[in-house]
Each structure stands twice: as C-alpha cells, then as structure tokens.
Predict the structure of Type III pantothenate kinase.
Amino acid sequence: MDHFESMNLAIDQGNSSIKLGFFDKSKLIATYKLIFPDKKMLNELCQLHAPHKVILSSVTNNTQPLEEFFSLKNIPFVKLNSTTSLPFNHRYSTPETLGLDRVAAIAGAITLYPATNLLVIDAGTAITFDLVVNNTFIGGNISPGLQMRFNALHQQTQKLPLINKGPSPFWGTSTLEAIRSGVQYGIAMEIDGYIHQASQKYPGLKTIMTGGDADFFVTYTKNIIFVNPNLVLYGLNRILEYDV
C-alpha cells in the first residue's frame, strides 16, 4: 500500500472507458484504465493506494455504480457538476451546458502552466478549443473530431468509403487519400488557425493539447504544442483540492 498522508483519486468516466489517476497532493502517482466499473479491480486499487477523497467527472449518466462503491467505503466523494467550485473564473453564459471534460482540461492546464495565457485543445470525439486569459476562461468552440468527420463523409454520401486515420500526402491521388488528407490536414490547419488567431491577440500564449488524437495531430501542425494525455486528471485533482 502507498503510504501518503493525503491521496486523491481522480476519475474521468468516458463513453468507452474509465481513467483513474491517484495523486499525492499535486503529484500524479499512478494511472489506470478500466473498461467498466469493475468493483473487484477498484477495491484492489483502493487497497493499494488508499485514497482519502475522490472526484468523478462523467460524460455518461451511469455513475451510480461508482457513487455506491465509494459511499460504501465512506470515502469523501465529489461529483463534478455545474455548481462545483472551480479554481478559475469564466464568462460562459450557460455554465450548466459546459462540458465537464472541458472544465477539467482547463483546470489541468492552469495547474501545469500557472499565470500563463492558454489555448486548451481536446482532440477527442469532438475537438474543443478553450481560451484562458488571466486565469479566466474567456470562451471556446466545439468542432467535429477526426473519426466523426470520416463517419459523416461516409454516412452522408452514397459512394465515399469509411476510412481511418493514417499517413497520407498533402494532395491525395486517390479517393482514399483525398478523404484522409482532406480531413487530417483540414483539422491541422484548423488547429494552426486557432493558435495563430489567439497568439496574435495574446502574445506568449501557450497551447496545450489532450485527447485521444492529440499525439497524432501534434505531428501535423506547425506550431509548438504541449501534449499531456492526463490533463483532465490533473484538472480534476486541482478541482478536488480547491472544492473540498
């Protein structure tokens, strides 16, 4: 068992998996990935790391198994929602509709890069672009993600095939290459465009990217981008420390 005075557990529940991060204060000790709320595995991990408090962010409505598990263990539990206290200010007019993954990614970015103007990009199912200036979330945009664009081209046409990401020349010389290059370079130029626009207004801006396609797109873009696959977990831990 890890012997830390105050071990936190941050849980990011997505549509297809559950990511767990154990923190000793602000230091990430270990991460795990579950396909479903496996109570046996959760019990083993809690015995190993002995968390003192837990925070959960979920994009699904199926949070009851996790809530019940930690309730039975009498571990203080925070379920992130629109009323949770946050370590940053925001100007969002509809906070109740602001994605919790976006909230956590922003909190993670300001934790890793304090006192810095930030563009936070999450390249997942959708691609989100969130601007943080002087510790205030100014606003952001949502765009279709990589696989969503591939799916749309296939589903909304009769002849275009469904393909996946992969290497491709800038100019396609076949239909497969044309689709792949059009989608992939289109997103890369979209990312570069957002970085350019934000950097023009806020010199010294840092760009942080997370999400399943982050490593893929960082090789396509022209700008310097810091990639952190655990950004949401860092943010959840920061919110837990701030809220409890």
Residues 175-201 form the longest helix (27 residues). The chain has a mean pLDDT of 93.
